Amino acid sequence: MPQNKKQGIFFTAMMCVCMVIGMSSYNMIIRDSFTIKAFATIFLPCFIIAFILEAFIVGNLVQFVLAKLPLNHESRFQMILGTSCLTLLCMVTCMSVFGMLVEGGIPTDIMHTYFATWRTNVVFAFPWQLIIVGPFCRMILGRVQNRQVAAQVD
Q: Which residues in 14-43 are b (16+ Cβ under 10 Å) and which e?
């Protein structure tokens, strides 16, 4: 886990990049609309929105809720799983609105469309985040932290 502000920003950016790549690709593929041009067009706005949400709203909310949950706060596994699941649920909830609006504007059956979008996204987001993105980003962060420690020792 990040140990300082700089590492936190790096980790959040890395996590957002990976999640936006996966979720944007997934949503375009299931709608049979994936092209490199379409992906390139949507990537930056999605990344910016995801990063701002995570860095300024969701991250703080998750830490607040996590502190209230009956978890073993000394257990790294429980804290990673709790943080990952809560962050994922919050981000899917927010980014599904963004994706729905980008895809076709405000639909007439907004609640039905939103919940269908949310359900479709959460089904992919959980395994994508918990099995691939989370471990990958933590591995990269660990390597960065090890290099920083090694640089301080020299």
A: bbbbbbbbbbbebbbeeeeeeeeeebeebe
Residue-wise pLDDT for 105-132, tens only, equals 788 898 999 999 999 999 999 999 999 9
pLDDT digits (tens, 9 = 90+) for 19-62: 999 999 999 999 899 999 999 999 999 999 999 999 999 999 99
**How far apart, in whole angstroms, are the C-alpha atoms of residue 94 and residue 114?**
10
Residue identified by tokens 């609309």 is 33
Q: For residues 93-122, b (16+ Cβ closer than 10 Å) or e, as one string? A: ebbbeebbebeeeeeeeeeebbeebbebbe
Task: Read off the tokens for 124.
Answer: 């992919």
Cβ contact 85:54 at 8 Å? no
CA 124 to CA 151: how far, in whole Å?
A: 39
Instruction: State the chain's maximal CA–CA distance in angstroms.
Output: 63
For residue 82, the tally of other CB atoms under 10 A from its CB is 18
Amino acid at 29: I
Residue 11 has a CB neighbour count (10 Å cut-off) of 18
pTM for this model (two decimals): 0.91
